[in-house]
Amino acid sequence: ADGRLDPEAFIWVCDSSIRQHERLPSQKAAKMRDVGRLGEMVEQCSYTLLFNDVWDRTVKRSETDTVSCLSRIWCVYEVFSTVRAGNELVMMFPEGERRRFLEALAEGGGAAQNALALVDVETAESFDPADKERIMGEVEE
Questions:
Q1: What is the mean pLDDT of the segment spanning 114-123?
Q2: How confident is the model over 58-74, as a mean pLDDT?
Q3: The dihedral of CA 104, 77, 120, 94: what is its sign?
């Protein structure tokens, strides 16, 4: 209530905790061990805090286009794992995007609901095609 973090709280930051771009064979084994447990780790968290640069663009229109983190397969997978576990998903935006999102909600929410409903795991991007194949296999189960 006073804005301080509960001293019993644990914070896990997947982007800092998981090897995601390893290329050497010895590094790939470590990466697979890490990413193989991602869903399990996310499901053990009480909630997932999703930092999203933009809320209404999930498909890149150009190389310089800023898109939602929901255009990346690992981010979609983390949301999937959160929902599958019945845990809370909290989205945060930079101040300008937050204002745009709240305006869309005030106008009836259709644009916001449509943007989130249009998140498509099949069009989500992955640095490593094998990652996308593995995630699609699990999501389709």
A1: 83
A2: 79
A3: positive
Which carries the bigger pLDDT value, residue 34 or residue 97?
97
For the cut 60, the answer to whether the pLDDT of residue 6 exceeds it is: yes
Closest CA to 56 of 8, 108, 98: 98
Length of the chain: 141
> Residue 112 to residues 35, 65, 129: CA-CA distances in angstroms?
30, 19, 30
Helix, strand, coil fractions of the chain, as percent rounded to 5: 50, 10, 40
Q: How far apart are the first and last CA of the chain?
A: 40
Q: Of 77, 50, 75, nearest to 137 (Cα)? A: 77
User: Alpha-carbon distance 22 to 35, whole Å?
Assistant: 12
Tell me the average pLDDT across 48-59: 83
Predicted model pTM: 0.76
- CA 86, 79, 52, 22: dihedral to nearest 10 degrees? 140
Dmax over CA atoms of the chain, in Å, equals: 52
Residue tagged 């995630």 (tokens):
135
Q: What is the DSSP letter of 72?
A: B
The answer to whether residue 127 scores a pLDDT higher than 60 is: yes
